[in-house]
Amino acid sequence: MQAGPRVCSAYASVEPPAPHCLTQHLHRQPPVDSGPQVIDFVRSSYLGLDNHPVIVAGAIEAIEAQRSLDWSWARTRLNCDLLRELEECLSEMFRARVLAFSSVTLANLATMPILASGQLTGGAKPVLVFDSLAHTSLTCRPMADETSVETIVHNDIDALERICRENPVVAYVCDGVYSMGDYSPIKELRHLQERYGLYLYIDDAHGLSIFGRHGEGFARSQLPQELGGRTIIAASLAKGFGASGGVLMLGTADDESLFRRYSIPGVRSVAPNPAAIGAALGSCKIHRSAELGQRQARLAQRIEHFDHRVATAGQGNSLPIRTIAIGSEANAIAIARGLLDGGFYTLGTFSPTVGQVGIRVCITVAHEARHIERLCKCILEKIAETTGKPYPLR
Q1: Beta-carbon neighbour count of residue 228 at 10 Å?
Q2: How far is Cα 144 from Cα 140, in angstroms, rounded to an integer?
Q3: Is the dihedral of CA 307, 308, 312, 316 positive or negative?
Q4: Are 203 and 176 a contacting pair, CB within 8 Å?
Q5: What is the tens place of the pLDDT at every residue in 239-296?
Q6: Dihedral through CA 196, CA 198, CA 204, CA 209, nearest 10?
Q7: From CA 365, how far away is CA 363, in angstroms rounded?
Q8: Against a cut of 0.85, is the pTM above it?
Q9: Cβ neighbours for 71, distance < 8 A, ≥ 6 positions apart
């Protein structure tokens, strides 16, 4: 199996490992620049910010100012001005009460026990309903010991409404933008929230930065000015945001106080480290400038260029993730291998992990029009060669 691509630009170097143990491979690996060059369509740095000089400089400046890479203390005992500055800046940008974590996975883990306990729903334990394709960090199994748990077919609003009619308190757990390029129907979920009091927990890790005036994300940009007490949004400060860490967007002072006191990842020593905070503050500067809108517009152009050449189920939905449905796992592997040989690093996807078999492509502003043109041409060629049929497959 080949190593992953370099992430410093749209180009990546792929170096095949030696056919020995990992230790030998690590010792024998030549300089990364010596490997064959491929164009990376795997990374989720949709706006191309993860090596932006302002973000890199922010990380370096924070380390130099703090003279440390980490703080080994619980946030209930000590805190720092740098972290407070970041949370205040994000709160203003995203129109919510924002808490920062060292990853969005920890943000999710901070929320699930509190949500299941009923502390966010007036003391009444909700029926927790999980979308079948919700991110794996939104795990439902441990919650079954605390409250009733159900899983519904992806985006099945009718099933969700039935559960709302049959139960007094329901909380729905889903992604805003799914990792395969699909999305939650926020308008319909808002309707259920208004009609039945549905509680919404939305992981919008893939939606942050690419939508909204200040990059508040796919979900937040479709919700009211005041987030309110029946919605929490989790998001990643990596991916589109270009830094590191994760956040929770809360709607009330009571919820913020509750999380600061009782969320296990929040009160322990798992706050973002100084480098991550400095990088995020650097990204905030970009998100509050005209550059964000310019990058969002360039990304939209890149997506449109891809959609013009290769049809997918997500065509026209403005998301930077496209999945080319293949059907056969063997064919998907062969096509991904052919694309890699052709100079393009993509991701083969398989069921049941993500619900479908295909090739995933992540489009970013780092890709030039010629990169996308060549990729699309190669995709159509490799599918025809492997399956004996032209794309789209029938």
Answers
A1: 15
A2: 7
A3: positive
A4: yes
A5: 999 999 999 999 999 999 999 988 877 666 567 899 999 999 999 999 999 999 999 9
A6: 50
A7: 7
A8: yes
A9: 78, 80, 269, 271, 273, 274
